[in-house]
C-alpha cells in the first residue's frame, strides 16, 4: 500500500472522528442541561442589550461615526467569539479525558472540534443579532461581509492558539488557572469591545494595540461601516501574524505534552 493511500485512509479516519466529536459537542452544549441552548443564545444577546442601554442612558448616540448599538454589538460579538472559544479550548482536554481511552481520539482533535463548534455557534448567533437589529432599524447591513468574517476569524484563531497554550499550562501547573483568570479579566475593556480605544493617548495606545484582538474588533466595525473612524494603527497583517504564531505554538505544545494531557 503506497503512502498516498495511507494518507487518504488517515484523513478519512480523522474526518470520522471530528464528525462524531462535533455531534457529541453539539448535543452536550445544547441539551446537556435544562435550557442549555437558551443560555448559549441569550448570553451574547443580554451582553449587547445591557451595554446598549447603558450608552443610551448616557445619551451617546454615535461612536466613531456609527450608531452606538452597532458599535457595541460588533465589538461584543467579536470579543465573545474570542472569550468563549478560549474557554472551551482551554478546558477541552480535561473535560473530555474519558474519550482518550479510544486511540483514534487525540487531545488536538477534541480542542479543534470544540473551537469549531464555538465558532459556528457564535457566527449563527451573531447573524441573528445583526438581522434582528437591522429589521428594528438599530443596525446596518455590513458593507463588506468578507471583512467582517475575516475579523471574526482572526479573533477565533487567536482564541484557538491561546486556548491550547493555556490548556497545556493549566495541566502542568494547575495553579496557573488563577493567573490566567486575572490576565483575561480586563480584556473586554482593553480590547476596545466596550471602550473606544481612540480616546487613549500615546504611548498607552501603542501598548494596547499590541493586543491582536483589538485589531480584530476595529476591523469588524470597518467592515460594517467603511466611514467608521477606526483607531490609528489598525494593522491586520500584524494581527494575523500574531494569531498564526499563537496557533503554531499551541499545536507544538499539544504535540510535546500529549501524554500529559491524556493522563488523569
Walk me through this protein's architecture.
This protein is mostly helical and 264 residues long. Helix content is 73%, strand content 2%. The chain starts with a helix and ends with a helix. 38% of the residues are buried.
Summarize the structure.
The protein is mainly alpha-helical and 264 residues long.
Q: Which terms summarize this structure?
A:
264 residues; 12 helices; 2% strand; mainly alpha; two-stranded antiparallel ribbon; 73% helix; globular; single chain
Overall average pLDDT: 83
Order of helices and strands: HHEEHHHHHHHHHH
How many runs of DSSP E, i.e. beta strands?
2
Helix-strand makeup class: mainly alpha
How far from one another are the termini? 37 Å
Contiguous helical run count? 12
How would a textbook summarize the main sheet?
A: 2 strands, antiparallel
User: What best-fitting shape do the alpha-carbon axes yield?
Assistant: globular
What percentage of residues falls in helices of 4 or more residues? Answer: over 70%
Walk across the major sheet and give the strand order: 1-2
Please specify the SSE layout and strand pairing.
Layout: H1 3-31, H2 36-57, E1 62-63, E2 66-67, H3 68-90, H4 92-95, H5 107-135, H6 145-172, H7 176-184, H8 187-190, H9 204-208, H10 212-224, H11 236-256, H12 258-262
Antiparallel strand pairs: 1-2
Helix pairs in contact: 1-5, 2-3, 2-5, 3-5, 3-6, 3-10, 5-6, 6-10, 6-11, 10-11
